[in-house]
Amino acid sequence: MLDLRPNCEWCDRDLPPDSPHAMICTYECTYCADCVRDVLHGVCATCGGNLVPRPIRPRVRHRDGVGTGLANTPASTERVRSRWTAEEVAALAAKLRDVPPGER
Ligand SMILES: [Zn+2]
Ligand SMILES: [Zn+2]
Known about the structure:
There is one protein chain. The protein is an alpha+beta fold. The protein has one domain (22-103). It has 2 helices and 3 strands, in the order ββαβα. It has helices spanning 33-40, 86-96, and strands at residues 22-24, 30-32, 52-53. It has a 3-stranded antiparallel beta sheet. A hairpin with a 5-residue loop joins strand 1 and strand 2 (30-32). One zinc ion (ZN) binds at residues 8, 10-11, 13, 31-32, 34-35. Residues 25, 27, 29, 44, 46-47, 49 line the site of one zinc ion.
């Protein structure tokens, strides 16, 4: 199940589960859209993969027999911060920003 992390790993702003600004990589590294555009340049600072808008989990279950919805599968409350320096982030972004995700 997708880990809905509560904050941007880079700037630490809150990203609640219904935020339209949350973006994730394939490992669920989570950033705000501003940091993806201005700092990461579309490159995850940890894995080097691309970042896409995080799907918004429905608040409630809409079908019997499934455990879906935020009430049943709540968002994480564990804040995650990037372990990389600004220089390390910039170096990886410079290396990969013009490489298509499937070729990284
Ligand atoms: Zn951010
Ligand atoms: Zn990543």
